[in-house]
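Project outcomes to date are best conveyed with an example. Our students and postdoctoral researchers have been running inverse folding experiments weekly, and each run begins with a structure described purely in tokens. The record below, which covers 290 residues, was selected by the lab manager from last quarter's runs and is presented without edits.
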């Protein structure tokens, strides 16, 4: 470990310890995973999730799959303020005890808070209780994985018997090769760009408008998912930003103890999908935006 990283980790641990000892105060409240799932099962609310990437962009930095732009920064700040009762905002459950996570994740989130806590405190709404973004990261982070099976089975109830439209990048393949979406009534797909999808947001939204208002939109489209979910919500649709839920589910099914590459993420284009046997997936694609 280099000296710079060591110093950073020590500072992050000191900062975390001060908050745990109540020598520093925080006012951000985050619901549990169970409470978040209950809210999504028992209501028709839409969902936008924030992870470390969204906060990194608020700090002015680009991500691997989305270049930073001033309007993105301002939009992310605005959404984090949680303006609508029926469009719930979820953030990481990292402001209390981190012992529930594996060692590597504990250190990651301590480092994250060292540099980013002030952004949560500045832009989160002190009059709101936030929901839990880790519904889409329900397996790998957790030290005790005994609840993971019940969490994911309950999540599947959110779209049980619903007519679902999945909006995702060409690599994502939500529910392909597993039973994640098997409880849905029907599944159709809109395929967007795998990177910098925000530039195509108007075109993607126009595709979404071709569906009636009873459709449930499940969105995996990086930063663009936040803004697409908001637009859909404002036009009377229900939209859930599910992020990397499918990848996490694959890790859960395979009982991995480290992050592993998902083979289907390398399947790109119609011919490759046919060769992989993903004929049902191809038949579900109704629109493509490139």
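After processing, the design step wrote out the following sequence:
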């Amino acid at each position: 470990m280099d000296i710079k990283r060591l110093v950073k980790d020590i500072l992050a641990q000191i900062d975390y310890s001060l908050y745990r000892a109540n020598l520093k105060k925080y006012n951000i409240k985050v619901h549990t995973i169970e409470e978040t799932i209950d809210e999504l099962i028992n209501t028709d609310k839409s969902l936008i999730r924030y992870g470390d990437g969204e906060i990194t962009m608020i700090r002015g930095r680009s991500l691997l799959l989305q270049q930073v732009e001033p309007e993105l920064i301002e939009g992310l700040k605005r959404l984090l303020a949680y303006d609508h009762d029926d469009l719930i905002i979820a953030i990481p459950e990292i402001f209390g005890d981190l012992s529930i996570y594996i060692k590597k994740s504990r250190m990651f989130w301590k480092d994250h808070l060292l540099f980013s806590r002030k952004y949560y405190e500045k832009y989160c709404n002190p009059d709101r209780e936030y929901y839990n973004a880790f519904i889409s990261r329900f397996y790998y982070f957790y030290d005790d994985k005994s609840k993971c099976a019940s969490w994911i089975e309950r999540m599947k109830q959110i779209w049980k018997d619903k007519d679902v439209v999945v909006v995702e990048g060409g690599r994502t393949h939500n529910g392909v090769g597993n039973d994640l979406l098997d409880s849905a009534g029907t599944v159709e797909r809109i395929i967007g760009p795998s990177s910098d999808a925000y530039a195509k947001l108007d075109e993607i939204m126009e595709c979404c408008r071709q569906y009636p208002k009873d459709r449930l939109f499940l969105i995996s489209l990086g930063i663009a998912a936040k803004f697409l979910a908001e637009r859909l919500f404002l036009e009377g649709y229900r939209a859930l930003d599910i992020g990397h839920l499918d990848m996490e589910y694959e890790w859960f099914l395979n009982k991995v103890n480290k992050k592993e590459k998902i083979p289907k993420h390398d399947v790109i284009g119609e011919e490759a999908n046919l060769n992989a046997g993903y004929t049902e997936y191809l038949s579900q694609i109704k629109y493509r935006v490139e």
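The chain has a mean pLDDT of 96. The longest strand covers residues 163-169. The training component of this project remains on track.
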